[in-house]
Amino acid sequence: MYNFKEFYKGKRVLVTGADGFIGSHLTERLLEYGDDVIAFVRSSALTSTPNIKLKNIGHLKGKITIVSGDIGNPDTIDLIKRKDPKIIFHLAAEAYVNKSFDQPLEIVRANVGGTLNVLHACFDENKKPLKNIEQIVITSSSEIYGSYNEPIKETFAMNPSSPYGASKAAADRLAYSYFNTYGLPIAIIRPFNTYGPRHTYDAPPKFISLALEGKDVTIYGTGEQSRDLMYVDDTIDSFLLMGSRKEAIGEVINFGTGKDVKIIDLAKMIIEISKSKSKIKYLPPRLSEVKRLCCDYSKAKNLFGWESKISIETGLKGNIEWALGNR
Predict the structure, then answer these.
(1) In which domain, by residue range, is 63 found?
(2) CA distance 196 to 74
């Protein structure tokens, strides 16, 4: 068991994308450990005391510092720098793959430009790393790889199939170049598909919502495409490892379960667990669909002794119970 509380207690940690799905869970966990948490959330204006509606961390107001802005706007550089964090978890992104088909410029502005802004917030006026910055965790994605017929290692070539995947690949490599060129203490995490409470897009939450309403569960294509699905609690552990272990600096590390699930089987499991009468309906294939994503997490295991702990069956049960209580 990792002793995250001992490491993170009292540390000043900034989380970009803190009001998002994964970011909100990470923010809660850091607060639980006694961190001085700064939550950077999305808004169209920059302010240190935003009067904005929060989706996922409204219950944490008064317990954390909340700042807001547009991550793709260069003005965020000074905003982040003024908060003087020791550790940064950069999760803010436009993460919906389908949006990248129609709005690729916005995806690149947020995902590539936003990452550059975070990196430049960690420099002093002489382009040297700020002395207080201990670790910068940059969130990449399994979508950078494209489709492989075998579990994916970090050494596999990046062949993103969508503008979203390409934007994350660009941000990933820019972050590594800033470690290599300027010595920024960067650790790059490549999580595979995450599901759990508060997630609103991708197959698991959509299937759960449809099943609980008794509506047809709709699948793009044949349903034979597969994903490595990891429950959010395991994903948060992986982020906390990347922020706390010095072995992660200068590395790119995959995190997943090592098991992929066909989308048709996922739909059947959700219908069965929720005791739904929903039927499965097939839609035309989605643009740029990746056929298979399965993680080889051997690097994470060798470096940290890491393995996911929550099975797909247990995770789906927990996700469905949460959805029932938050309808």
Answers:
(1) 4-195+231-258+294-309
(2) 32
DSSP state of 86: S
Residue 225 lies in a domain: no
H/E run at residue 108: helix 104-108
Asked if residue 46 has pLDDT above 70, the reply is no
246-282 pLDDT, tens per residue? 999 999 999 999 999 999 999 999 999 999 999 999 9
Angle between helices 203-212 and 312-325 (to 10 degrees): 50
| Total-model pTM | 0.95
Bridge partners of residue 309, in order along the sequence: none
The DSSP code sequence of 239-298 is HHHHHH-GGGTT-EEEE--S--EEHHHHHHHHHHHTT----EEEEPPPTT--SB--B--H
Question: How many domains in the chain?
Answer: 1
Instruction: Return the bridge partners of 191, or none.
Output: 255
Instruction: List the CATH number of the domain containing 244.
Output: 3.40.50.720
Q: 179 with 185: CB under 8 angstroms? A: yes
